[in-house]
Design a protein that fits this description.
480 residues; OB fold (Dihydrolipoamide Acetyltransferase, E2P); BirA Bifunctional Protein, domain 2; eight-stranded mixed beta sheet; binds adenosine-5'-triphosphate; binds manganese (II) ion
């Protein structure tokens, strides 16, 4: 006889056979029905106790949150709500949970707000909602690796501590081993980082892109999937200070091939979870409908969660140039009625989240890929178009999320790249290794970055990015 996961036990047909289940008590009713969850699935197994022949001292220890090891036979259930149940022949309390203490926690059986759950992030994975989200997150992560592996990509592990601060993707976290009380100083009074651990200034990476580019120009098709860090003070429901980013980079891909890859990739991983996370998605869908029922009609989701995911999988993303998008926005109702916080009047304006969401949620009502942005509002490494004023950039915008992907065809011409860096005061010495790739067998190439948590946000139907990562980091928060 062996330990079996509840996910397997619930589909087992081995009636009258003995199994061992290990998990945590969700509820205990009438001294008889113990509902156990072991994390393998959103579904619980009901275990039936012969309480008349159970030591009362042991009975007292069976309470919500306690860890139990239960031996029993699988039987067809008499009650409604479950096909099978476990008739207990032996029960051991592996770890008690004092009901008085449980009362103070989110393990107590009542509705807790997402904010309260966040304060007890070490316990929230034991709730239905967070169990479902975190299983979904794990499956999505697997789907990411499977997709790239199937498409002939190699994973490149780019560094997390980086010595270049020229990536320009945002504010960075300094990495230093100097004594903060008494750092060595240069003659001019500034800190002497040449005496620091790495002999230079170092930071936590904001993106693995530049290093991934060097690998694409050797391995052909590569991707990174790792943690990235941004010390930006953006207290939004879409930003974290520590998040996981997926960054494919492909030699000989132009922007069109890049857009095709991004679209196919997103559809593929969402298709994977639709197939492999049915119970969790069904639960999250129901949860969302309940949440929405408390909101005014206008704020409710347009479609049930799984229909929304299927819609993305089954329909083409709308591809629109920045210039077309500006024309649409300029003539839009919220712009004319001055409802946008930032009004669109001129070509060249950076798009704010309100504009992105208008395009996706009101105008096109489907995922949108915007391309060919003004060079001035995009990063130095993006390939300049023949018009001299736009670059081969693309952003993918999703309903309810805004930007989910940012990518581009990279500037492969050494002279154009150097000119751009000079114009932005990016020292060539900083990126000598990056420039080398343009000297030795340069070729057109493209890639993009997709914030993994934004993908999980979309797939789970949650609304705050802090609820789709186990231990969120944001300004003022690094508990756990
Ligand atoms: P945004 O405008 O939303 O701040 P960005 O332009 O700074 O995004 P990029 O630097 O292009 O984003 O990063 C690539 C992707 O990483 C984004 O499309 C998004 O999915 C994700 N991302 C960026 N910043 C964050 C963050 N602070 N937290 C979570 N995900 C992020
Ligand atoms: Mn940003």
């Amino acid at each position: 006889m062996k330990h079996i996961s509840i996910v397997d036990l619930l589909v087992s047909t081995a009636i009258h056979q003995e199994f061992i289940v290990k998990g945590w008590v969700r509820s205990f009713r009438g001294n008889r029905f113990i509902v156990i969850n072991d994390g393998s699935t959103i579904n619980n197994i009901q275990c039936v106790l012969d309480f008349e022949n159970t030591d009362p001292a042991l009975l007292k220890r069976i309470s919500t949150g306690a860890a139990l090891i239960i031996k029993g036979t699988l039987e067809e259930s008499q009650g409604a709500g479950q096909r099978v149940e476990l008739k207990i022949s032996d029960l051991e309390v592996a770890g008690d949970a004092d009901p008085e203490e449980v009362k103070r926690t989110i393990l107590s059986p009542k509705r807790h707000s997402l904010e309260t759950l966040r304060e007890q992030a070490h316990l929230r994975v034991r709730t239905n909602t967070f169990g479902a989200i975190m299983r979904l997150r794990s499956k999505l992560s697997f789907a990411v690796h499977q997709y790239f592996n199937d498409q002939g990509f190699y994973q490149a592990h780019t560094p997390i501590i980086t010595g270049s601060d020229a990536e320009g993707a945002g504010e960075m976290f300094r990495v230093s081993a100097l004594d903060p009380e008494n750092p060595p100083k240069k003659e001019d009074g500034t800190i002497d980082y040449s005496q620091d651990f790495f002999g230079k200034e170092t930071n936590l990476t904001v993106s693995g892109q530049l290093e991934a580019e060097t690998y694409a120009l050797g391995l052909g098709k590569v991707y990174t999937f790792g943690p990235t860090f941004r010390a930006e003070n953006s207290n939004t429901s879409r930003h974290l200070a520590e998040f996981w980013m997926i960054e494919p980079e492909v030699a000989f891909y132009d922007l069109d091939a890049n857009m095709d890859l991004a679209e196919d990739f997103i559809k593929s991983v969402l298709g994977y979870v639709l197939e492999h996370c049915q119970d969790d998605l069904a639960f999250l869908e129901k949860r969302l409908i309940e949440e929405d029922s408390k909101k005014p009609q206008a704020e409710r989701a347009a479609m049930p969660l799984r229909d929304k995911l299927k819609f993305v999988v089954d329909n083409n993303f709308k591809r629109v140039s920045y210039t077309e998008a500006i024309a649409i926005l300029r003539n839009s109702k919220p712009n004319k009625k001055k409802k946008f916080k930032y009004l669109i009047d001129e070509w060249g304006a950076d798009l704010q989240s309100e504009h992105e969401r208008y395009l996706v949620e009101k105008h096109f009502e489907c995922p949108v890929i915007l391309f060919d942005y003004p060079a001035d509002i995009k990063a130095f490494y993006m390939r300049l178009n023949e018009d001299g004023k736009t670059v081969r950039a693309m952003d993918i915008l999703f309903p309810g999320i805004g930007e989910i992907v940012g990518g581009s065809q990279r500037e492969e011409r050494l002279d154009v790249l150097k000119e751009k860096m000079a114009a932005l005061d990016i020292p060539e010495e900083e990126l000598w290794w990056y420039l080398d790739t343009r000297k030795f067998g340069t070729c057109i190439h493209s890639g993009f970055g997709l914030g993994f948590e934004r993908l999980v946000l979309f797939a789970s139907g949650m609304t705050n990015i802090r609820d789709v990562i186990p231990y969120p980091r944001f300004p003022g928060q690094a508990e756990f």
